[in-house]
Amino acid sequence: MTLAEWCVLGALLLYLVTIGSIKWIRFRGFDNSRPRDPAFYEDAIAQRALGAHQNGIETFPFFAFAVLLAEFRGSPQRLIDELAVLFLIVRIAYVLTYLGNRPTLRSILWSIGFAINLAIFFMPMLKRFLPV
């Protein structure tokens, strides 16, 4: 497996850990028979964790597809790997700023992550201009 493919797994685990950690920290208040109970998410940190989790679910398919498309179309693997690692770092920072209630920085990080995804996605079209 390539480093980029491991980053796809990392992105998946990140959005699971984001909500799982809040459920684990507040395990006495979490009722697994009612996992979407709005009362559990009344606390501000739980709301932000849920928001970060949902955003991770939203961004994951595009990231995974972009990585696989770039790899299958023969784009430079080293560049795919570097951008995938950068995306994962940006997503970790995004989650931390979401949990830390830093909306402006969070939006900037989201935009950077989206730009990285676009770069990976369009890499096959531009591969003749990229270093090998």
TrEMBL record:
Its main location: membrane. Pfam families: MAPEG. It is found in: Membrane. InterPro entries: MAPEG-like_dom_sf, Membr-assoc_MAPEG. Keywords: Membrane, Transmembrane, Transmembrane helix. The keyword Transmembrane helix applies. The chain crosses the membrane at residues 6-25, 83-101, 107-126. It comes from Bradyrhizobium campsiandrae. This is MAPEG family protein. The keyword Membrane applies.
